[in-house]
Design brief:
globular, 16% strand, 32% helix, alpha+beta
Length: 167
């Protein structure tokens, strides 16, 4: 039996950025591979591929996960959100995306989508966090070229605006 004959596939049905999708996936494929390969959602970056850098973060049923270590078959029946799903109907940026621009929290941009998805989870909790708590909540991300302070500024200011407080 050849290697190709040994591969098993499974049908995965899930909602991606608000749209029901279904595709056959190799049972060994990561969610990163499915999102990038099948749906061309290239905001989901292949960084370390071992769940350490956060570049592949997506929301699954509202909770942030490293999609590189999450099997695509586990997404069956789930709701998945990527940065592409944050844009408004006319392509306008979400408040957190705009805050990253306003606060110069982006340099090369490779890690940015994963950090933004973590920020979305934080912001959608509706809780107010201290700067130190935000730092800890965002600590699962590795960025090689920007200062983390600008990222913290963007998340903190967006949190405050959503909570209707001024800094």
């Amino acid at each position: 039996m050849s290697k190709e004959q040994n591969i098993q596939y499974k049908l995965v049905r899930c909602k991606i950025n608000g749209v029901m999708k279904e595709t056959m996936v190799d049972v060994r494929a990561s969610l990163t591979d499915m999102l990038r390969g099948e749906y061309q959602l290239n905001s989901v970056k292949k960084g370390c591929e071992v769940g350490e850098c956060g570049a592949c973060n997506v929301l699954i049923d509202g909770e942030c996960y490293n999609s590189c270590i999450y099997l695509a078959v586990w997404a069956d029946g789930k709701e998945i959100r990527t940065v592409e799903g944050l844009m408004g109907e006319n392509g306008e940026l979400s408040d957190i995306q705009q805050a990253f621009i306003d606060e110069a929290a982006v340099q090369c941009g490779f890690c940015t989508p994963g950090i933004i998805m973590s920020a979305v989870e934080i912001l959608e909790s509706g809780k107010e966090y201290t700067r130190e708590e935000l730092r800890k909540l965002l600590s699962g991300h590795l960025c090689r070229c920007t200062g983390y302070e600008n990222i913290l500024n963007a998340v903190e200011k967006t949190m405050q605006k959503r909570l209707k407080k001024e800094l």
